[in-house]
Design goal:
- Helix 2 crosses helix 6 (about 90-115) and helix 4 runs antiparallel to helix 6 (about 90-115).
- The protein is globular, with a radius of gyration of 28 Å.
- It is an all-alpha fold and about 325 residues long.
- It is about 75% helix and about 0% strand.
- The protein is built from 13 helices and no strands.
- The longest helix has about 35 residues, at about 150-185.
Length: about 325
């Protein structure tokens, strides 16, 4: 039952995003090739590699290590742009980056899971790729096509699908907490500290170095927020160990709490700073005084317009 609900959640959530996004907005938001390439490398290669190395170097169970790898391999959580707006980041770049990473994740997520779990035969790549294509990418593309052709209908559907996604997400989290609560309660304190510390390391530059409205803030926020819905969907579809889903829930708790708190602090206390790349407003210039017509000037001093007589025409 939860597996079906998770499938519906991914479809509804991706469709709700597609109904609100236009292709022109994505192109405009993804400006700067170096920023886009750097964000893709950080989210799709560096971040999963670091999580895999830490999971391998610590005494975690197989289920917990798999849950961490699934979270790290599933980029672009839908709440990334929401938290970016909260932290006064570049919202257009956050939204474009979220959609781009979601599409690229169609290839990188199954590849990352295959390499991290040592599936040298590649038995997990094709079914995971197919599941992501059907349940994640296709709803997004179809919804974006509807938005480009019927924007009014897309706007109404976005509200309905967004509400349905929130209801599904809350219901699934409550059900998983009931079913996997024993696994969560038995998790050691150092695992909580490990997760919280790792997320704070990613978010720390937001408070120390990144000015309001900057693309760096957006990049760090989107990187810290992984796609919990996709990770839970893959866990329920391909793994039987309850510790996998429990670990994803644990990561999700800190993933929502810490970026939200950092976003509030950064948005409230650093909004007065000026963006270094913000255009400087041009000084206002008074319009030039139009040339005064001689007839109008004569009228101002009380002389008739006939005072100026045209000069006689010479042959």
């Amino acid at each position: 039952m939860i597996g079906v609900a998770l499938q519906a959640l991914v479809v509804v959530m991706m469709a709700s995003i597609g109904f609100e996004v236009r292709v022109t907005q994505l192109v405009g938001g993804l400006r700067g090739a170096r920023w886009v390439l750097g964000a893709a490398a950080l989210n799709l290669a560096v971040f999963p590699a670091v999580v895999w190395a830490l999971a391998e170097g610590t005494d975690l169970s197989t289920g917990m290590a798999t849950g961490l790898i699934l979270c790290a391999a599933a980029p672009a959580g839908p709440i990334g742009p929401v938290l970016s707006k909260l932290s006064n980041s570049d919202l257009a770049f956050s939204t474009g980056l979220m959609v781009l990473l979601g599409v690229l994740g169609l290839f990188t997520t199954p590849l990352t899971v295959q390499l991290a779990l040592g599936d040298h035969d590649g038995g997990i790549f094709v079914p995971m790729f197919t599941a992501l294509l059907v349940f994640q990418v296709m709803p997004l593309v179809v919804a974006m096509l509807v938005a480009s052709r019927l924007p009014g209908l897309a706007g109404r559907l976005a509200k309905v699908f967004g509400l349905a996604a929130n209801v599904l997400l809350v219901g699934i989290v409550i059900a998983l907490l009931i079913l996997r609560g024993d696994v969560l309660s038995s998790t050691s304190v150092w695992v909580h500290a490990w997760l919280a510390g790792g997320i704070l390391v990613v978010l720390a530059p937001i408070l120390r170095m990144s000015p309001p409205g900057s693309m760096l803030r957006s990049l760090l926020t989107v990187t810290a927020v992984r796609n919990m819905s996709v990770a839970l969907f893959l866990a329920s579809r391909f793994f039987d160990d309850p510790a996998v889903e429990a670990t994803i829930l644990l990561w999700s708790f800190w993933m929502i709490l810490l970026p939200g708190a950092v976003g509030v602090i950064a948005g409230r206390f650093r909004t007065s700073e000026k963006r270094p790349d913000a255009p400087v407003a041009e000084p206002l210039h008074r319009p030039e005084t139009p040339p005064v017509c001689p007839v109008t000037a004569l009228a101002r001093v009380g002389l008739p317009a006939s005072f100026i007589r045209p000069s006689p025409r010479r042959n």
